[in-house]
Design goal:
The protein is mainly α. The chain contains 8 helices and no strands. Helix 3 (about 45-75) runs antiparallel to helix 7 (about 155-175).
């Protein structure tokens, strides 16, 4: 599972390994899709950019609240699986974020709002130079939380997965990421969190059950 995800992320990557300087993506399917999505938004009133950026952060807040709710519900009900699972989701998401940061330093992909400045007029402020684009940290965090919660509580999938999709789309709409950036981040984190739950949940559940025995 992890090897397949790594292969897909490597395929989505614009390169960068062993290359000096920033990698710029100025053409291809992802760049074209980026321009088609950001164009109409850039023509909207300036206040829309603020709303979209707040909404982008808001998706992470909601997913984080759902994770805390999952943990607290499990603890209150003395449900060792839910309690342990929530902790593992958090740990897996943090691990995926760390990997995402490491990949950024290897790929050094320039933000599209900088690489396509001549062709794109974006609604949000472009991050500072050196704040690399691939993969998207927001998409990494959102997808990790969403996938983990959907695995632990399948009924939540109808809420968490659309929230993760919205988080990824919003990062493109405001102009700070290419579509392949958010796709790579989502694949990375959802795979890592799923693997963490698959491997460690039985052991973590047994450990927690000794600490909070069922009533």
């Amino acid at each position: 599972m992890l090897s397949v995800a790594a292969g897909v992320i490597a395929w989505l990557s614009p390169g960068g390994l062993g290359q000096s300087g920033a990698v710029t993506v100025k053409d291809g399917t992802s760049a074209s899709l980026y321009l088609s999505l950001t164009g109409p938004v850039a023509d909207a009133p300036s206040w829309l950019g603020t709303i979209l950026e707040v909404a982008s952060e808001g998706t992470l807040v909601v997913l984080g609240v759902l994770l805390v709710w999952s943990w607290w519900t499990g603890l209150r009900r003395r449900d060792a699986r839910a309690t342990a699972g929530a902790v593992l989701i958090g740990a897996g998401t943090i691990a995926a974020y760390a990997v995402s940061e490491a990949v950024k330093l290897v790929v050094d992909e320039e933000r599209p709002c900088r690489a396509l400045r001549a062709a794109a007029d974006v609604i949000a402020a472009c991050p500072e130079p050196g704040d690399w684009s691939f993969p998207s940290n927001h998409a990494t965090l959102a997808a990790g939380l969403a996938a983990g919660l959907a695995i632990l509580w399948p009924r939540l999938a109808a809420v968490t997965l659309p929230l993760a999709g919205a988080a990824a789309l919003l990062r493109v709409l405001v102009g700070v990421h290419y579509p392949h950036d958010v796709l790579a981040g989502a694949i990375l984190s959802s795979t890592v969190v799923a693997a963490v739950l698959l491997v460690f949940l039985p052991l973590a559940q047994r450990t927690v059950s000794r600490m909070i025995p069922a009533s």
